[in-house]
Specification:
Length: 120
Amino acid sequence: MVIYSWGTLFNRMERSKIKRFENPELLDYIKHNLPCVACTKFPDETDICAHHVRTRGSGGHDIPENLMPLCKSCHVKIHAIGTNAMAKQHESVKKWLILANWEWDKYTNKWRYYGNEEAE
């Protein structure tokens, strides 16, 4: 059994994701031009990641409405606590979700995309 540190594991995940990304130009734009939605740090201050609100494994696509720019620490945090908890802690995350055509579904207790069907 191989044991990885969090940094090593995260770097391995990032390398494999770049190969699987449907739109590498969009990923490059997000990583170099947009601030972290949660903590508002800019790319010149930190590394920015593109977080899939709806995972690709759950049918999410690489479209702007499904890719939330987050710094590495906020990206790790959103995976640890979930999108809903992150939206409760950071008003800016909630606003981003609403502006990107996501709405809170009180029946399922999940964020639901109501824009282009391609994101779902």
